[in-house]
Amino acid sequence: MIVAGFGGRAAATPAAYADALDSAWGTQAIDALAAPADRCAALAPLAETLGVPLLALPPEALVGRATPTHSATSLAWRGAGSVAEAAALAAAGPGARLLRLRHIAADRTATCAIARSSEI
Predict the structure, then answer these.
(1) What pLDDT does 119 receive?
(2) Does residue 44 contact residue 77 with C-beta atoms inside 8 Å?
(3) Residue 43 is part of a domain; what is its CATH number?
């Protein structure tokens, strides 16, 4: 399973999330989107457009998860160096690995990382 994980500011729009996904993965197929539960409302239009499930992650799914990239803001607010990377890894399950590190939308309000489950 290929999962696009997202992080974003409260001001992030569906267009910003789509831009972050395009930057990270282009038009390649994905199986699901994942993000902190409080950011899913802005991601729902993208999930609907793509026809994939949107996985709402509780805070504890992200806290302390090791990520290759680090943002002081993400660490302070969510307890993970990269919310997008942590969300992608958490949703893809045990043994998942990142295929793409976080990419930042042009307006800098949203990020996206891609992970693959170990079941492929």
Answers:
(1) 72
(2) no
(3) 3.30.420.180
